[in-house]
Structure formats: C-alpha cells, structure tokens
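seq/struct pair 1
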Amino acid sequence: MNSCNQLLEKAESLKKELSNSRNGLSSDGSGKGEWVSSRTSLQDVYRQLLITNLEYALDKKIEQDLWNFAFKNHITALQQQVKDKSNTYRAEAQSQLTSFLDAASGFYLHLLDDLCQTFHVNIPYRVSSSKLIFLKESASVKRSSVTQPERPSCQYMCQHCLVHLGDIARYRNQITQAESYYRYAAHLVPSNGQPYNQLAILASASGDVLSTAFYYCRSLAVKCPFPGSDTNLRKQLNKIMAGDDPRHTKISTSELVKFCLKFHGCIYLKKSKIGICLY
C-alpha cells in the first residue's frame, strides 16, 4: 500500500504540472517538451496503479483522472483550436489532434490487453500486445506485486477502456467502430449506464431521435445509471417539445415519432401541452 500511496503522490504532482502548462498548446512551442514528458509519466504512473492495485486505484478514481488529465483535456483543447476559424494554427492543431488520438487509442488498447492478461479476463475482441508494436514499451509491473481484485472491478475497468476507445473512434469520425466499442462495453457490464449514454450521443449525431431517447432511457434504467443521461434526455425532450406540431391530419413516420416523444416528454418533464395527443 505504501508504494501505491507514493505513486499517487507522484501522480498528483504531475497533474499540477500539466494544469500549469496550458496543455502544451503555446503557439511558440515553449514548454511543450516538458508537457509531453509530464503527460507520458502520468500515464505510466496511473497504469502502474491500475495494474498493481486495481481496487485501490478505483477507490481513488484513478481511471477517471487518467482519461481527463492525460487525454480528454488535451483533446478538447485541440478540438477547440481546430474549430476556431480565426486561428492561424488550425492545420497544425488538426495534425496534432490526429496524432494524439492515434496515441490515445494505442494506449487504451495496450492497457486493455494488460488488464486482460494480468487479471485473466477473457475479452475475445481485444487486441493482443504483440500486435501493438508501434507503441513505446511502458514500464513493466512485477506480477508478484499485483493485488488480485474482485472480478466485477476487472470487468468495470475493461469496460472503461472500451468506452473510451469508442470515444476516441468517435472523435476520429469512425462511427461504425465507435458503435462497436460501445456495444462491446454494454455487453461486458450491462448494469452500467455509460455505454448506453454514448450510444445515445451517436444516435443524436445521426438525427435518430427515437434511438437517442431510447438509449438515454436505457442508460437510466440500469443498476448503475450514468449521471449525465438524465440531463441529456431532458435537453432532448425539451428540444422536441419546442418543435412545431404537424399541421396536417396525415403525418409522416418521423412526425409520428416526434409526436410520441412529445407525449413522453410531457410525462417525464411534468409539463402540460394540451393538444399534442389529440390527433
């Protein structure tokens, strides 16, 4: 446990360094090398914690900090730079984003394989480390120092990797691959609502309002609901209810779907909109 505490202290120090370095995005490139070094070290420390003592790591929410501080914050910052049409460094930001997403995908594929091998979890669709030759070899963890966790914790952590592999694929606009990862994640731990929330995000992007509502509801109707799904569902239903009502007696299938969702929106949001059910 002392070694875990030491690793956690090191991680906290690295987090502060990353927070003070503006995600390595200074236009003149100053501090970028230090930022990359700190981020790589943080990834390795978190990986060691997850492999060495998974129960301890999950209790400290290491998996969330790993995603947010080592990957998500930088991805979001680069995405904002790419979207900013006034930014003269848009092309460079796009190149950096593409490379960073490749590295992020490789990291989580490698971590997933490490988890499966260390904790003897059988996931048929994982990529073995022997095929990830493009990855830099990370620090090895002595098997003798590993504390065997409970099986649900192993499955949850593997699901966590699958969800974020899906997120990374979605950021790369690889929609079919993203959906596959989310479905694999949902199949692995059906009682966790996060994969269903992510499937709803995909459905929303494609304009499928019925599937969007279904997956948000599915995300809430499980043993461990995803906290953001309620807010996301409310936003979707409010948007649908704000839309125009059909003006013809004969309505299309898509209008009927929206009509049905308006009815459910009235119930879920406890709003009154007389007339939407009178057709």
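seq/struct pair 2
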Amino acid sequence: MLKYVSRMVISAKGAYVGLAYPGSDGTWQTESKGYQFWTVTDANGYFWINNVRMGKYNLYAFVPGFIGDYRHNVAITITAGSVTKIGKLVYKPPRVGPTYWEIGYPDRSAAEFYIPNPNLKYVNRLFVNQTTERFRQYGLWDRYSEIYPTKDLVFTVGVSDYRKDWYFSHNTRRKNKYVGTTWEIKFNLNNANKNSKYKLRLALASATAAELQVRVNDPYWAKSPVFSTGLIGDENAIARHGIQGLYRLYNVDLPGSLLVKGNNSIFLTQSRGGNGFIGVMYDYIRLEGPLT
C-alpha cells in the first residue's frame, strides 16, 4: 500500500531529508533491506515526501555546510491514505567552542580538494575538460607517490589553500611496497589553555581498510596516539574512482596540555599499508577552541 507524507518543516533550506529504517550502526547509510524515501527542502525549509510505503520509519536529515546528522527522536508510523505533519524540526550541529581553523567544506564529499592530472598513459578523454568529475581518471591513487615521493603532505593554516594543497585522498605511498603516510597540519595559537580541552572535528567522506590516528606536536609522540579510529571502511571509493562513500564524523578531544603558545602541529597518520587503495577521504576538518 502507498501513502504520502506531506508538509514537514526543517530549519534549513537545501537540507536532505529522508524516511528510512536504521542500519546496523543505527544510521540510514548501512540499511540495505528496507525502503528509503528522500527529498530536499525548498527555499523556505519546507518539504514533502510522497508515496511512502506503509511501515515505521526514522526521519533523518543532513544539511550541506554543516557537519553531522539529524535524527528525529520519535519513530514515524506510515498508514495507508494518511497525511502526517511533523512540524518544525531544528538541527543543532555539534559545536563546543569557536572555530580556530577549518579545512574543506562539509558536504560529505572530497571533491573540493586537490585532484591531480592523470598519468599521461592513462588519460580518459571523456574527463579531460571536466571540472566536477576529474576524480574519475584512472590511477590517481598512485599520483600521490609521484607528487610526494619522499615526504608527506604538509598543510599550513592561513598559508595553504585546500583546493590546491590538500590531496583528495589520504592513501598509501608506493615504495618497495605500499606503506602508510602521515599528513601534518601546522597552525599558530595566540594562547594555549593548558587546563581545557580543544575539539578536533574529523568528517570523513570515505574509508577503505584504513586506520586514522591523531597525534599532537610530535608524529611519534608516545606509542599511543591521542585518537585512533581503529580499522574502518570497505567502500573502495579510491579504487573505483569515486569521491565519497560512507560518511563518518569523529569528535576528538585534544588536551590543552599538548598545545603550546605559537606554532603547533596536528599529525594525521593513515597507518595501514599493503596496497594503493587503502586510505581515507576527508570531507571536512575543524579545530574548535574551548568555550570562554
């Protein structure tokens, strides 16, 4: 039986809103056996979802330009021929303090970062003049090893441009074998509050057999990182010439005692090796200071 849901309201235009069953991790992304119904809010934040199959659903939403997901706190039961009005939904993106710096644009894709020209031996002429699908060229994962043959990517906040200086995939480097890599983000602090915690927001657009580790001011600091994702991802976006897979958001506490007044560095290590397709794609990174 079919029915429709009509005239719900969300507080942001251009939001993606959908009815779905939760997957194995509680989100809509990993649900593969049930039905999903999605739409986009209009300029005033209104949306309609028509012709929904009967059943009980969760309502999810996400908004380009903001990190995280919205999930309605009450399940919605759809019955034949009915109209359900939800009312106003307000999504408050996660935040604890002011933005010190950010890299990228939060849209669940790595498309805004630097995508190199392909090896001349593998050029696909369909995408030579493309500006939006350059990532579809063959073998771009190996270009990282050519562009950074001995040292990894270093990004300096306030100097570097993520559209030119942040590689679109944090994958392995090809030596005698494929090995993990460590990227460095350099930034300056006018003051470091030693008794507070800073928040590092790591939004990933994709991951494949990867482990992302975070260290502060020493790439080899202790044997244990400040944070590790553990082994994550099997999307194969790097190997399949994609630009996004499953979205993941990690909210990492950085003790102020690890930071100093002046020059600081955050090291992002993708520690797994083995082949050229292992790695992560970043969607967006932000450092928030403590609340004052």
